[in-house]
Every structure is written in C-alpha cells, then in structure tokens.
Amino acid sequence: MSDFLVSVLWFLLFFGGAIYLAYNRVNLFTSTVAAGGALLAYTIFGSGSFLWLLFLWLMFGVLVVPNLRDFRREKVTRPALDIYRTMLPSMSDTERDALEAGNVWWDGELFSGMPDWDRLMSFPAPKLSDEEQAFLDGPCEELCRMLDDWDISHERGDMSPEVWQFIKKNRFFAMIIPKQYGGLEFSAYANAMVITKLASRSTTASSTVGVPNSLGPAELLLHYGTEEQKQRYLPGLAAGDEIPCFALTSPQAGSDAAAIIDSGVVCRGEWEGEEIVGIRLNWEKRYITLAPVATVLGLAFKLYDPDHLIGDQDEYGITAALIPTSTPGVEIGRRHLPLGTPFQNGPTLGRDVFVPLEYVIGGREMAGKGWKMLVELLSVGRAITLPSTASGGGQAATYATGAYAQLRKQFNLPVARFEGVGEALTRIAGHTYIMNAAVAVTSGAIDQGEKPAVPAAILKYHCTELGRKVANDAMDVHGGKGIMMGPRNYLGRSYMATPIAITVEGANILTRSLIIFGQGAIRCHPFVLRELYAAQEENREQGLIDFDDALFSHIGYAISNAARAFFLALTHAKFSRVPLNTPTRRYYQNINRYSAAFALAADFAMLTLGGKLKQKELLSARLGDVLSSMYLASAVLKHFENQGRPASDLPLVEWSVRTLMYNAQEQLHSFLRNFPNRPVAFFLRCFIFPRGRTYSSPADELGQKIVELITRSGEARERLCRQAYTTIEPGNPVGLLQEALALSEALAPLEQRLRQARKEGLIDAEYPGHQIEQAANAEVISEDEASRLRSYHEKLTALMAVDDFPADQIGRVRAAADDEPQSAAPVARSAARSKAAARKKSSPRRKKAAPDND
Ligand SMILES: Cc1cc2nc3c(=O)[nH]c(=O)nc-3n(C[C@H](O)[C@H](O)[C@H](O)COP(=O)(O)OP(=O)(O)OC[C@H]3O[C@@H](n4cnc5c(N)ncnc54)[C@H](O)[C@@H]3O)c2cc1C
To answer: CA angle at residue 500 from 497 to 505, to 5 degrees?
Structure first.
C-alpha cells in the first residue's frame, strides 16, 4: 500500500470515528478515551513525523481539558459566565411569564436535533367517548341543521333566538366545565371536533361556541378561581344562564396587550350598604367577543394600591376579575361587525365601577397574576379553537370543491380534469389534511396532560394561514359561483371570515415573527433556559456549577448537531434510525435531517446574535417556519398511524410531508442567505447543504392522485372531511353536492350512451339537458332512465345556480323588504322586513367617547 493510501485510511479512521462519536452523542469521557486510543495506535503503527505527532497530541490535550471539571470551571466557565451576564437580553416580567407558560413536548424533541420518535409514537390515538360521539351525532348535528348562515349574516345579523336557546340548553358553552358543576367535561379532542363541525357550517356559530370553551371566565375560574367563585359562576355558565366574555384588548393596546391602561384602584367604597375595601375600575375595551350579550365580564386591568390598603405595594400589575355586567357603571350592548360574520362582538366601557376585592379571580392573593394566568391558558387554548375552526372550514371547502370541480363542466370536461384546477384542488386537500392532523394530534396530546405552548402557537399561526389558503383556492375553483353572495353561496362568508382567525389570539405576523421561534428557542432548547437561570442564580457559586454543566453539555450538543446535520445531509438521511419500516419511512428520516440542521442553525443564531435576534424578526420567523414545518410533518405522520395507515391516504400524507419539508429547506436557505455574519453563514451552509438544496416539492403526478381522491366518492374523501356537516338535506349545499356527485357516478354509463348516440348522429343537441329528451325519443334510453337523468340534471342546475336580487335590494340600507332574494327561505323574509325597519333606525357609531381611564 502506498504511503498516500495509508494516510487516507488513517484520516478516514479519525474523521469517521469523530463523526460516529458526535453523531451518536457519546459522552465526553468515552469520546476522549476513544480519541486517545486512536491517537496511540497512530503513534505506534502510523508513519507521522515527530512534529505532526506533537501537534496531534497537543490537540488531544485540548480535548482532555474539559474532562478536568474544577480546572475548566475556573479557567473557562467563570470568564465565559461573566461575559454571558453582560450579553443577557433584558426580559420583562410579562415576557418571562410568556416564556414559562405551558410545557415542552414534541417541540423539544425537534429542537434537540435527534428526535426520539418513540416518544411521539407512544401517545395513544385520540378517541371520542360514547358520550362525546353521541353529542356530535345528536345535538351538534341538529344545531348544524338549524343554522342558516345567510339568515344569520345578511338578514338577522345574529343567530336566531331558537338557535341561542338550543346552544344554551344543550350546554354547548359548557364543554370544558366539569360535570360536578353541570358541564359536559369533554376532552380537548372532543371540544376540537365539535368546533370543527360547527365551523364547517357557520363561522358565526363556531366563534360563539368557541369563546366560552376557550380563553374565558370558565377556563380562568377552573384553574385559578376560589371554590366560592366556582360555585357562584360555573353552574350558571354550564346551564347557559350566564354568558361570558373576556376583555383584554383596548384601543391603545392590541398585540402589546400588557400595555393596557385600564385601571383598578384599591380604595374604600360602599357596597350593598356597607363600607368595604374594594376596587374602583375604569376601562375601555374593544373587539370583545360575546360582550354585547354577556352577563359576566372577565376583565383584565392594572391594579394600583396607592393607599396600601391590601399590602405594601403601589402597583400589582395586570389582574383579572369577573364583573357581573349588571354592576352599575358597566356599559355593554354596542356591536362591531367583524367582516360580515355577525357573532356577538363589541366594545365595553366601565366608568368608576366599584366592586369588592373578592371579584378578583382567585381572590386577593392573585392580584397582579392576571398576565401569567392568561398566557398559561393561551398555551393550551390556542391549539384548539382557531385551528379547529380552520380545519372545519377546510373540510367543508374540500368536500364541496372536490364535488363541484367534478360536476362543473367547461370545454366538455369536468373542470377538475384541467391541470391548473387540479393544482388548486391538490392544495385544498393537502392543506386540509395537515390541519386535521395538527388538530387531532395536538388535542390528543393535551388530553394526555401536555400543555404544549410552542405547538399551540404553531397551530394557531399555521392552521389559520392554511385555512386562508384553502379558502382562496376554493374560491378560485368555483369562479363566479363563489363570488355571488346569497343563500346559495356556501364559500363566500367563510372566505370573508378568514382574517378574523388570523387576527385574534395573537395576530399572525406577530406570532410568526416573535413567538414561535422566540419562545421555542428558550423553552425547547435543551440548555438555553438552564444557562439563563444559572446566570441569574443569586448564589453565584451554585450558578457557576450549573452554568458550567449546561455550557459543556451545550457545546457537546452543538458539535453533535454539526456532525449529524453534515452526515444526514450527505447521505440524504438514508441510514438514520426511524421507528417504522413503512412507506412513510423516508419522511421520518427527512425530519431527522432537518431537526439536526435546524438545531445547528438555531444555536449559531443565538450565539452570534444574542439578544439582537429578538429584533431580527425575519430570521426568527424563518427558523420558526422550519420548526413549524417539522412539527406539522410529524403530526401528519402520527395522524396517519393513528388512523391505522389507510393506504388510500398515502398520496395525501406524501404530498403534505413533502410540501412541508420542502418549505423547511427553503426557509433554512433564506435564513442563511440573510444571516448577517457571512463567514458563519458560509460555515453553516457547508454543514447543512453540503450537496445543495436537494429536496424537491411534490411531483405533479402525486397531485393527480389527490385530485382523484377528492373528486370521486370514496373512503379517503369521507375520512378527510369526516367532521364536516355533510348531511344531505335541502338547506345544505355541501351535502347536496355529494348527492349530485354520487348520482353522476351512478349515471355515468347513461351519459356515456348519450355521448355515443351523439357521435353516431342519433341525437344532435349539445347541452346534456336537451340530449335527454332527444335520446328518450330516439329510444337510446328508456323513459325510466330519462327520468333519472332529468332529476339529476335538475339537481345539478340548481347547484350550479347563483342568487340574484331585485335592484333596490342591493345596498346597505334597503328601502323595504317587499322583494325577496329569489331563493331566500320564508323565515329569512320576515326577518328581512323587521331588520330593514331596524336598520333605518340604527346607524354606525360615528363619534366615540374619549378614553377616560387613566
Ligand atoms: C373578531 C375579533 C374578536 C376578538 N375577540 C377578543 C376578545 O374576546 N377579547 C379580547 O380581549 N380581544 C379580542 N380581540 C382582539 C385581538 O386579540 C386583537 O385584535 C389582536 O391582539 C391584535 O391587536 P390589534 O387588532 O390592535 O392589532 P395591532 O396590535 O395594532 O397589530 C397590527 C399588526 O402589527 C403586527 N404586530 C404588532 N406587533 C408586532 C411585533 N412586535 N412584531 C411583528 N408584528 C407585530 C400584528 O401582527 C398585526 O398584524 C378580538 C379581535 C377581533 C378582530
């Protein structure tokens, strides 16, 4: 063997060994022993010169130092800790509360660079109890039947009194309230499925039901209320006698909700004939869901105690209290109109409202803990209501659009057969699959006791964004049919409502730019929070020990991620360990690869930018996108397993994961392109993309398979839209489209006979409706067959039709409602008349009272 070859073999031994040790995260001591052994062997058997060997042994010496704990603590860690303390980003109490909210779950595994798939796979598939299933099949189905979204949004401006009564009587507002207080005590999964179903029918109904079951008085009371407060309110909330709302947002403070100026001053005052120590409240809130009809107002304000009546603090900070809206000085009743979706939402004012201290949720010891309460609860609530709403909208859009695109013909072909339309249909189905998976897997984890704050933010942001994309695509596929408003339009209202979900519970731009990665970097990273706490430890020596431990573990972790990112990228992760040997195996491996790459990039971003990363919102957003893509892709894989790996869903799974992981690659690429420290960006690129950007987006062929799945009746189409309200009944176009689709499939042989007859010149009409008569006369089809075809074409014509109105009915103020829209239901007509009169009297509030609460 030539010297050169021997040298190459030695190099491979060292390099491969180092990669192996780092890849498998072998601990420092074992790695040092292994490196020492290899070097000894090289010294004895190799042919290195003296100087070269000396250099290698000196390098080995550097590796030995970290093993000498006391030495490294004094000589390395202490100075590093001093520098670190000066670099620590400033953190307000509210930021700290937000960071500490919830717990770390699968997001932590993805952050580790080496996800333990067994942890995810060991979670049981979420299941509905018999009682929950009966609720979905019974009251929930019935409520969907009762809802007439055109009447709600364009005629009545509200749900009908019967619907309100039905919702209260069947305890829709009490899904999260325990049975001991009269509630339904449903699982998070069941709660999510109910909201999904309602959202597939009416966003007004899903928003109305969603709020009391999410971040509202009931949730706050359950977690923080005193027993007396629970007994006082929960039975009434469960029975629907009390209507709750929660008011945080004010005109000055939207996204920066901690900046509210609404105040509560501790003082003496008269309450029920006696002088007591209470709180004098002044507030001005807006955008508050259910406020116009609320009986109990959850209120966030800043508490001050200038006379030190309850302690020695002047200021307590954000506090939450429950105020009956009948209390003198509380103003409710005026309404906003959120993009034509008239769920009850409006402002509330309070002027010098005096209430007892006992109104503070949790009593006086919870004074100043309001922000912490809110962010804790948001860490769960955000994973349920809005993502389920988006998923429900997606399911309805998929079901309807799949059928519509098959039934609607242009150029003698179903529009679904055109590749351009197929692309939109594929996105509709794939995005809906992702939303379904994310909601089911995450709510299932919540039911197992997790409080996944970062996944909740991921779901809030991505499901509502995917919902918006689905709504856009569905509108495009429907053409004019989606645009003409009227009772027959089943898309336009949910399309208009999409920005609502984008804005509430943390507006999306902020959630993407600041929260997902910002919170993840500190909470999910295995060492950052430990380092942060160690640096802030009052006992400096203990701080040094803790910091030393975290720092060296962190260095090992970074080296390992570099090795893993490089090796997995070089090998396309083909050899990485995954939990299953199924057709989805490669996707687990892709996630393994990007997990290591992401962990490496995140570490270097934090190391080189430190506190400045908070201002570099676009870098943070892109890293957040990578984390989100991996989380959603994992949810898709787990959902597929939870559903028993149905083979017909494979195209949806493949399209979803491939789309998400392609997005992860592109976002990492953009992150590196824009990383301000160019040498570091170059170094990272060498490890993350040594072979370039090799991951491709889904192939067109895959899209074609998905189009087949959702444009034909079948189990995959039904499974994808399982929670949507698809019952075939006159008021439900989504169900009627399925009925027509099934009929078109059954009648396909007859239609083929008509086409053949036309080719043979037996009939000559172009339009299928006219062909039926000619074919019957020419005895190409029997009278019975003609009658079946006629009935189908009547249904089809009705489904393809849009509404039109008398000219004087178009406009905000209608002169009179004597002429009705051609297809408006009778109930809508009488409502239209009374509303037209009411509209004349009411006008939008033009002048607003000046804020007076500071
Ligand atoms: C229909 C509806 C129902 C609601 N229901 C309730 C309710 O029941 N109770 C309640 O208390 N509130 C409620 N809200 C209020 C809601 O939570 C706020 O609208 C939301 O927090 C955003 O505040 P804003 O509208 O004032 O927007 P702004 O705070 O003015 O934000 C404007 C834009 O700037 C972005 N932005 C702000 N700061 C940053 C940043 N640091 N980095 C990046 N981007 C940033 C935001 O993402 C947004 O896109 C509701 C709102 C709506 C529309």
So the answer is: 150
Q: How many CB atoms lie within 10 A of CB 516?
A: 27
Closest atom of ligand 1 relative to the 336 alpha carbon? 1
Going by pLDDT thresholds of 50, 70 and 90, the confidence category of residue 812 is low
Provide the phi-psi class of 769: left if phi over 0, else alpha when psi is between -120 and 50, else beta: alpha
Ligand 1 within 6 A of CB of 633: no
Burial class from Cβ neighbours inside 10 Å (0-12, 13-18, 19+) for residue 484 reads middle
CA of 504 to the centre of ligand 1 (A): 6
Tell whether the model's pLDDT for residue 223 goes beyond 70: yes
Distance (Å) from CA 255 to ligand 1 centroid:
5
Ligand 1 contact, 247 CB (< 6 A): yes
Counting Cα atoms < 13 Å in the Cβ hemisphere of 614 gives: 9
Residue type, 248: L
The CA distance from 143 to 704, in Å, is 36
Q: Does position 846 have pLDDT exceeding 50, yes or no?
A: no
Contacts of 330 (CB under 8 A, 6+ apart): 297, 323, 324, 348, 349, 350, 353
Predicted structure pTM score: 0.92
pLDDT at 225: 95
Residue 740 to residue 742: CA distance in whole angstroms: 5
Q: What is the pLDDT of residue 538?
A: 86
Amino acid identity of 373?
Answer: M
Asked whether 283 lines ligand 1 (CB < 6 A), one says no
Q: How far is the CA of 49 from the centre of ligand 1 (A)?
A: 68
Atom 50 in ligand 1: which residue has the minimum CA distance? 287
Q: Is 301 in the pocket of ligand 1 (CB under 6 A)?
A: no
* Cβ proximity of 657 and 491 under 8 Å: no
For residue 265, the model assigns a pLDDT of: 98
- Using 50, 70 and 90 to split pLDDT, how confident is the model at 844? very low
DSSP of 56-117: HHHHHHHHHGGG-HHHHIIIIIHHHHHHHHHHPPP--HHHHHHHHSSB--HHHHHHHTS--H
Cα 264 off chain centre by: 34
